[in-house]
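ingest -> validate -> predict -> emit
validate: passed (alphabet ok, no gaps, 307 aa)
predict: started
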Amino acid sequence: MEWQQYRIVGNTGAVKLCHWMRQKLIYGRPCYKEEFYGIESHRCMQMTPSVNICNFRCLFCWRYHGMTGFEKSGYPEPEQLLEECMKEQALLVSGFKGDPRCASRLWDEARIPNQVAISLSGEPTLYPMLGEFIELCKRKGMTTFLVTNGSVPKVLAELSSMPTQLYVTVAAPNKDLFDRLCVPQTTRAWENLMETLELLPSLSTRTVIRHTLVDGWNLGWEKEYARLDEMAKPFLIEPKGYVFVGDSRTRMNASNMPSHACVREFSSRLAEELSLEIIKEREDSRVVLIGRKGSRLGVRAREITST
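emit:
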């Protein structure tokens, strides 16, 4: 993992620069989340409190599935996790200073992140101090995007502090396909995901359902996905195409990567089922955003709700 430019914090935490951090610093090209939600790509810290600790083995996941032993390791305390992730982030960014294509202002800002993407690897709701960590980020003036597979609804229901935005991945329209594609390692995983979807309307944060779409596997079934989305009542829905990268290449083929046109066609049909609209899209990321016309998308201050 360190060879792949991960930086390990404690026994289970990790931070890693994402592709779009480099794109923003060198070419000024932001991540789609900057265009959709107003975060600053170069100030976003991609991290995890539970690297390679996951209760799913999703076939489309670009992470390596063979790591073992972390489960018995002690988790870092929230203060250590945040402080050391920020320190490692600054070190990872430091090499860009000598690149003449990198603006000095962006480099200075990138060393002080103001957005934390709790999504790098593993399942973050397995980290026992998740609420405390989010609260610490909040006290530091940082927004947080939490990405979960929805397998532990009890943790979400009892979070002591909610993230700025909560993503739940729904990568299958039914239990049979879910079991084959997401390969849960625990019992009642589908039932737990359904509990999470039922819980979402009661949570005091902006919620987003992400449909990770794999051609030949889970494209289509718009009516079935719509029923799940109606249960969750998310503020936004984000269909996103699978990308043939990382260790997923040992489990998938390039033909499983849908075109943006396929993702948009799925999104159009889903939006029609839900009486919603496509409000944004980004072709190079194969992603579409579905919501109500006039949805407020910024993450700062009063802009975390939808109209």
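Residues 211 and 239 are 5 Å apart (CA to CA).
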